[in-house]
Amino acid sequence: MATPSDGFSYDTIVRAYTSTRYVNYLAVSSFALVIVDFLHTFPDEVRLMWKAPMSLPNVLFFAIRYYSLVQGAFSQWTCKHILTFLGQPPRW
């Protein structure tokens, strides 16, 4: 346990924990926005992009669109499994 003689103050630990919580909240909320955007624009994507011939703009569109979706899901999955491995199961 950290004591003031170790160079850490309890206030510093509490502030670090609070900051980490805020960062986690922002990460989850930004991923929620990505999901909402994906669901909202998916019908337009099917209508406009899937039926168009394959070109560089189409490839870039799909790469960027699905990379953000996969990356967000993977980061949430990784965070959950790391916390479980460390013996601190996540609360979500």
From TrEMBL:
Cross-referenced InterPro entries: DUF6533 (IPR045340)
Residues in DUF6533 domain copies: 25-69
Domain of life of the source: Eukaryota
Keywords: Membrane, Transmembrane, Transmembrane helix
Transmembrane segments: 22-42
Protein name: DUF6533 domain-containing protein
